[in-house]
Every structure is written in structure tokens, then in C-alpha cells.
Amino acid sequence: MEELEVEGLRGFWQSRRSYVKAVDGVTFKVYKNEIVGIVGESGCGKSTLAKLLIGLVEPPLQYIDGKVLIEGIDLYKLPEKKRRRINGEVISYVPQGAMNALNPTKRIIDLITDIVKEHNNKYPKEQIYKDATKNFEEVGLSSDVLNMYPFELSGGMKQRAVIGISVMLNPKILVVDEPTSALDVSSQKVILKLLWKLKEERGMSMVFITHDIATVRQISSRIIVMYAGKIVEIGKTEDVIYNPLHPYTKMLMSAVVSLETEIRKRKIEGIPGAPPDLSNPPTGCRFAPRCPYAASMCEKEPPLIDVDGDKKVACWRVIK
Amino acid sequence: MLLKVENLIKIYESGFLRRKQIKAVDNISFTVKDGEIVSLVGESGSGKTTTMKMILRLIKPTSGTILFNERDIYTIPKKEYWRSVQAIFQDPFSSFNPTPFYKVDRILKLPFKLLDKMPKSEMEKRIKESLINVGLNPSDILGKYPHELSGGQMQRILIARCLIVGPKIVLADEPTSMIDASTRAIVLNLLRKLKDNGMSIIFVTHDVSQAFYISDRMLVMYRGQIVDEGPVEEVVYNPKHEYTKRLMKDVPKLYERFEDLK
After folding, report:
1. Is the predicted pLDDT of residue B262 greater than 70, yes or no?
2. Contact present, B106 and B156 (Cβ < 8 Å)
């Protein structure tokens, strides 16, 4: 059963003269109790997608059209007030750079109280404290942390605190945006273990956004590869890693540094050039300007099409 | 021996009445040979950056000596020293002056103060050459403001700046942690190229896989001490110290899944 269903979702950033098409027609599903990874370079629209998924749409970001079905309820058909309630209770968000997500002038517990009161004004204060302690223990923090200010915590602890806060209201879906990028490898593993535990014990589904493929492959069952606001490949984690079909995915894989000897010998390669300017994206295949295999057929936009079973690719070379 | 660090100790003190001491670097010694990439690996707070800053003469060690070409670095005039030792820092976004008064050109012109006087045309030629060397098109870069550039571009400009000076040693303090994987590959390959041109690099990182990819020797730091050192393959495949063993297990691999995630 699918917990989260996204259909033709589009969200643009408005600038003075034009729209930056950061998410331009994205369709995918997240099943119950599943972790889906979203990978891509910086500037591919990953974080914008996260914001759209939870309905955190504030100018200059604009929702254009498409559906986000959370347990069958269309998020963007709901009135603003209801949407805010869903955000946190059903779907929750762990923002990028947890370091800066906490209010530096507030104790952690005060921040939690604010959030919980926003959703349920009658929640007694002792109960909040009790629940917060329980949640924080689950993420591996002692209850003393609740009475601390953010500057007293290390990076890994802050990240854990933010995850602890985001699961306060028992959401069913968690959207985590680059939770491991600013941490060292040992803290990274702690976070991965923690997310895995939440998935197993609470039966949560997750959307895990990152540019670090070696991290996401540890935890996700499927991987979505995004490029310039569009999905270029979806597939089972193993399939995408061992047998990438889209040229972009292939190049992304060859840029990964990892502890394996083959990689040290092979010499990694970056992708030359940069993602296109999304206020004026190339017509047709958006990767074509950087693609070594680009041909005349790439002037038309390739659809995201099923290839053998569970895999979807948007590339004319593969489709034909 | 190009650089020799002996019994280096740095103690940070804080507090006014009740003094608190933190031993950031605790009696470390190591050497760097000509044309070698040595990486310094360890978790946050293990003293990597403090070591770097001491070698760069930004902070004074509490005790211990740093020898550059057999000379104590504090006896070498600063200008001369920095002509041989240059650094690339972690955060490209804060390495540039973000105010809109300064173009990127400025940071590329500043290193000429370290060098002997030369005509303007020669300066411009050198700047262009170094930009091409790091894979940037000079016309894309010169005359722009920092906010118009991407993180990867900025980091490469900083490497180009290093090339203008032409140092013997480049201290690279987490140069790739703020940029995404595909640009990271470009920067790492660039550092390898510097090595081929005969420069030594001290590469500081918490990411063991990056260190594994580019370096010849690896030093593992933990709580201010060097707990493991040797040729890269030896440290990665046969770690001796408990901490190194744990660290190697924590590194996410592309073709392998963690077994103990549950």
C-alpha cells in the first residue's frame, strides 16, 4: 500500500522576471514502511521537492499543480489550516542543516512546547516533558539535553535532537533532507541506525534526500535520481547502483569515492559542467547539454517509462 | 624531509578564575616528504584543524617544533614561509569577501603580494594560466562577484590562487566537504594533479574514503593523538588501533551494505 503518492508535482520559485522551475512534473510513490532515497547534484530541486511534499509553501516558492496524496488525502486540496496540522502529525520534515534549524535563544524543551501547543493547545506541560524525554531517549539523547541551549550540543547531537523533535507527534512519514552531510562518518552511522530503528519500530516511511549515494544505499530500498527538476531514474537500490541505465546516473556513480580498492584504481570522474539554469531549462532532455551520448532525438523530452518491471528511466537511448 | 613535526602540543585555555584546559593536540610527530599526499583523518574535535593552523603559523604551539626544510618555521620570515606553504579551507563561501565591492579577481591578485614585483600583464597571464589549470574558463570567472559562483567553482578558484604562489606544500583542510559528489570528484582529481606537479599535500578530512582515494600515507587522529599511521592500504585494510578499526567499519561503502544497521 502506498503511504505517499506524488503525481505530476510542480513547484516554481518566483523571481522578479521569471520562474525557476525547481520541481517540474515529478511522479513517484512511497510504500508503507519503506525508505526511498532521492539523489542528485546540488541545484537539482531535491530540497524544493521536500518542501512541496510537506506543504511548506511560502513565497517565493509557489505550488503550481500536481498532487501530493498522503494516505489518500490530497494535501493541496486542503485548506491552509488543515494542511498545517497534517504537517507534523502525519508527515514531518527534518530540514537540511539541523545545526541552524534550532532556535539559538530557546531551550530545546521550549521549542518542543511551542510546536506541540501549535498542534494541540490542551496538551499538559508535564505530558510534553514526559513524551519529549521518551522520544529523546529513543534517539539516544538523555533528558538533560531538553534543558540545554543548542550551542551546548555537538553537531551529531543537534541532528539527533532535530529528528527527536520531528517525530514528537508520531508522524507516519518522515522527509529527511541531507541529515548526514555535515557530520563525520561515525556520527553519520549513528543517524542512519536511528532512522532505521524508527522505520522498524514505528513502521514509518521515509524520503531520504542526499547527494551522498554511498550513505543512502545503506538504508533505502529504492533510489530516485533527480536531475534539473525532473526524475531521470527510479529503481531498486541494488539495480540503480550495479546497473545504472541513465547516463546521468552512470556518471553520478563514477563520481563516488568509497573505500573499495577498485575505486582507488579506477580513478573517479566528476561530471563536467553544471546543472542548467532552471529559469530557462533546455527544451527536450535536460541532461543533453552535458551528456556524452546526446543525439538529435534528445531534442524531444523523454518520458519516464517502465523498463523491466520495477525500473523507470527517462532516456531515449534506453527506451528505444 | 620537507616538513617535520616533532612532539607538537597545543593546549587551549579558557575561563578567567577557574582555568579550564583542553589538550587539543597531544604530542604528535610526523613527517611529510617531497611530492607526497599525506592525509590526516579523524572525527570532529580530534585536533586536525588545530594541527593545520599550527603548521600554517596561524596559532602558536604550546610546545614542540615544526621544521620546514630543517629550519624552525618561526625563524623563517613570514613572507618567505607563506610562499612555500599555502592552504585551502573547508568553507569556500566564507573564504571570499562576500560584500559586493570586491570581485573574484581580488582574491586572485592578493597572492602577488607574496611574490616579487612583476608587470601587470605578467600577473594577468599567470592568473589566466592557473584558472585554466584548475579546469575553469577565465572568461567565466574574472569580473564576477562571489555570489554568482557555485561552491565547486569557488573552491577551484582557491586552488588556482594556491597555484599562483606555487608553494611546496598545500594544506587542504576539508576542501571537499561543502560541495556535492560530482564536483568533489573534480576537486580530488585536481589535488592529485598538483601532486604530479611535485607539490606535497596535507589533506585533512573526516571522510576516510576520500583520503583513501587520493593519499599515499594516512595518519589517524583521535583525541589529539595520532593513533595509527602508515601507507593508506595498510591502515585501511589492517588497522591496528581499536579506534581505526571502528572508524573503518563506519564508512559507508557503495557496493556493500552495513550489516549491523539493525
Report:
1. no
2. no
User: Considering CB atoms only, which of B177, B213, B254 is closest to A217?
Assistant: B254
Between CA B72 and CA A59 the distance in angstroms is: 58
pLDDT tens figures, B44-60: 888 888 999 999 999 99
Cis peptide before A150 (omega within 30 of 0): no
B182 to A36, A39, A255, B105, B156: CA distances (angstroms): 21, 12, 5, 26, 14
Distance CA B71, CA B51 (A): 18
Provide the 8-state DSSP code for A44. S
Whether B209 has its CB under 8 Å from any CB of chain A: the answer is yes
Across chain B, mean pLDDT equals: 88
In this prediction the pTM is 0.85
pLDDT for the residue A184: 81
pLDDT in tens, A176-217: 998 888 788 888 888 899 999 999 999 999 999 998 888 898
- Residue in B177, B253, B261 closest to A192 by CB: B261
User: Residue A128's Cα: distance from chain center in Å?
Assistant: 28
- Where do the DSSP E strands lie in A32-146? 35-39, 61-70, 73-74, 91-94
- Tell whether A277 lies on the interface with B, counting CB pairs under 8 A: no
Q: Do the Cβ atoms of B185 and A268 come within 8 Å?
A: yes
Hey, which residues 243-262 in chain B have their CB within 8 Å of chain A? 246-248, 250-258, 261-262
Give how far B240 is from chain A: nearest CA, Å: 17
B166 has a pLDDT exceeding 90: no
Cα gap A213→A204, rounded to integer Å: 22
Classify A149 as helix, strand or coil.
coil
Contacts of B209 in chain A (CB under 8 A): 214, 257-259, 263
Q: Where are the beta strands (DSSP E) in B200-257?
A: 200-205, 217-222, 225-231
Nearest Cα to Cα of residue A20 among A278, A229, A228, A227: A278
Q: Which parts of chain A have pLDDT scores under 50?
A: none
- What values do phi and psi take at A139, rounded to 5? -90, 10
Which amino acid appears at position A121 of this protein?
N
Cell numbers at A269, concatenated: 570522474
Residues with Cβ within 8 Å of residue A184, at least 6 apart in sequence:
A156, B43, B44, B206, B207
DSSP B57: T
Provide the strand spans (E) within chain B.
Answer: 3-14, 20-32, 37-41, 63-68, 71-72, 85-88, 169-173, 200-205, 217-222, 225-231
DSSP for residue B18: S
Assign residue B128 a region (left: φ > 0; alpha: ψ between -120 and 50; beta: otherwise). Answer: alpha
Which of B154, B177, B180 should be substituted to probe chain A, the one whose Cβ sees the most A Cβ atoms within 10 Å? Answer: B180
